[in-house]
Every structure is written in structure tokens, then in C-alpha cells.
Amino acid sequence: MAITDINEYAHLTEADVEALGAELDAIRRDIEADRGMRDVRYLHRTILAHRALEVVGRVALIGSHKRSLWLLGTAALSLSKIIENMELGHNVMHGQWDWMNDPEVHSTTYEWDMVCASPHWKHSHNYIHHKYTNVVGMDHDVGYKVLRVTRDEPWEPRRLFQPLSNLMLAATFEWGIGLHDIELGEYLRGERAPEVTVPKIKLFARKIIRQVGKDYIIFPAMTGPNFVHTLTANATANLIRNLWAYVVIFCGHFPDGAEKFTVESLENETPGQWYLRQMLGTANFKAGPAMAFFSGNLCYQIEHHLYPDLPSNRYAEIADRVRDLCDKYDLPYTTGSLMVQYMQTLRTINKLALPDRFLRDTADDAPETASERRFAGMPKTRGLKTAIAELRARRRRTRR
């Protein structure tokens, strides 16, 4: 099933993993020492782009009864919300800009433009997800408690509706994220104490009132007779932002090669093994400068998981050094086009909607679920990348 012995799976010795961790630590130190005005200018330009697009969108929607202005306003507002969500909100709350000591962009004070309350997100994402990345049963981002994305989770009849659940999650992604840390189901089943859950529900309710009031009452009312046109524009912009955030996040966590891990893998985990788990549990997608910017530079999901609190504009240069380390230690660097990464993700979601008896691959050697047992009977190789290549070559020979 999932990986228990990460050293064995990666075909690395303890000394190899320790050396890898030391080299990754060196990259962190280099970037931290080099932070400065170049990064500050990048952040300020990002804030300016977000605000300028929002102003264009809001002004255009004053005339939203005209189709051309509705389209312009909706497009500008969608881009503004994407920038705020991906490159600002997500990255600011990771603490990427705390070194500036600017309260406007500090992780402790920032509140983003979506229904999820920032304290809830920082707990479920910054702490749970990034500490226990892809550990089945601990990282709730493995399927978001809605989707089965690994065979480590037993099949249930409700999984048959998984393709529909996936579409609903994509369209309402901000609401799914908002509910993520509240764990409402556990509370209703009596598994969470009221004194823990009720305050979270109240904070979530206040955030909903703020967001719904802003997007669906106040701003539409400001356009007078075009209230309905502006309301639909705001709803469309939120939908586009939700869909884009969903695609970016899913392409970083569920394509082939983004591995899962057992709880046992955390026992006595070293810093080097934590780094290695991030490298093996995440995936990138190829993007030019514009797509990278609008994805919050999460096209570099591997680099983000290695260094979640380093400025996102540095991920491209970090990626060059991480790829070199993957070559040095014979590790795969999982990446592909956005379309390929999402199609692999979609295939996994739809495939695992079916009972296991309909699946062809073994539970230890499938595109979405693998363990160190996939290499049973194979001679020891130089590293994981070579081992995977030899395993695929063996399969091709068997099929002939």
C-alpha cells in the first residue's frame, strides 16, 4: 500500500538521506541570505496588479448591463481574485514575507478574500498538511475527506458518486477549504468537543457573512439598477477562482508519482527524511512566467513543500538546484504539462470510484498507490529513478 520505509523506497542509505538534507538546508540558507529589495519589488508589483485589476473590474461592472462591460468586469475581477488567493493570500499566510515586518503582508494579520477564515486554513494547511504531507490518516488533504485518491482508503459504495463529488468540490472549492478545519462531521457524530468546534463554527459564520455581504449585496448594490448583472459577475469570478485554485492544488498532489505514506513512516523521521517525503509526495507542472504567477508559483509544488516559507518568486531558481539534486541522488523529479498532470489526477479520481476488484494494478504498484514492496525481487539499484525505469522495462518485456 503506502510507503512505510522511505529510505528503502528511495533506494538511499541513511548517509545519502542525511547528505541530501544538508544540501537542501544549504539552499535555504542561500535564499534567506539573498532576500532583499528584488523580492520586495516583486511583492509590491503583485499587490499593485491585484488592486488595479479589482478597480478595473469594479468600474466596468457599473455598466454591467452591457455584455462587453460584464465580460471585462468579470475577467478583471477573476484575475484579481486569483492573484489575491494564490500569490498573496496563500503565500503571505505561509510566512513568506514575514521577514519584511510589514503588518499588511504578515502571516499573523492577513485575511484573504474567500470564505475560509485564515486561522482555520493556517492550522489545516500550514501545520497539518505541510507537516504530515500525504501521510494517510493524518493529512486531511489526501482527498479532502471527499475523494478516494489512494487504495489505502477502503472502497465504500458512496465512492461510486466520486466523479460528481469531484465536480462539486471544484466548483465550491473555497467552501470546502472553509469547512476543512472545522471537521463538522466529527462534531455531529460526537467525536469533537463543543468547546473546540463551536468557536470555529462562529468564526466561519462571521467570515461567510463578510464575504457574502461584500460580493453579493454591497458591491452589486453599488451598481444600482445593474444589481443582478453585477451579482452574477461576482459569482462567476468566484467560480473561476475556485476552479483554478482546485486545478493548481490537485495537479500538485494527485498526479502519478505523488506518493502516499503510512503513519509508521513518521517514526523517528529525520529532517532529511522529511525533505525526501516532500519531494516524493508532490508534483510540479510546467508553466511559463504568466501561468507561474497566476498559480502563485505553485507550479513549483515540490519546491513549495521543501520551503513553504521562502518567497514564491524564488521557486524557479530553487527548482534548478532541486533538479540537480534529483539527478545526483537518482530521484525522480515529477513534472509534466498542466493537462497531463490533471488528466492523470482525473483518471485516479474516476478509477478509484470503483471497487478494488475492478482495478488491474496491485495495491503496491499502481500509478496512484505505491510502496517499497513494488520492487520486491529486484536487485538493488543506484536510486529510485533507475529502479522505476528498470521496473517499467521488466513490465514491457513481460507483456511481449
Automatic annotation (TrEMBL):
Coiled-coil portions: none
GO BP, sorted A to Z: lipid biosynthetic process
Superkingdom field: Bacteria
A single GO molecular function term of this UniProt record: oxidoreductase activity, acting on paired donors, with oxidation of a pair of donors resulting in the reduction of molecular oxygen to two molecules of water
Fatty acid desaturase domain: residues covered: 70-335
Pfam families found in the cross-reference section: FA_desaturase
CDD domains, per database record: Delta6-FADS-like
GO cellular component terms, A-Z: membrane
PANTHER family per UniProt: DELTA(5) FATTY ACID DESATURASE C-RELATED (PTHR19353:SF19), FATTY ACID DESATURASE 2 (PTHR19353)
Protein name, per record: Fatty acid desaturase
Organism: Gordonia bronchialis (strain ATCC 25592 / DSM 43247 / BCRC 13721 / JCM 3198 / KCTC 3076 / NBRC 16047 / NCTC 10667) (Rhodococcus bronchialis)
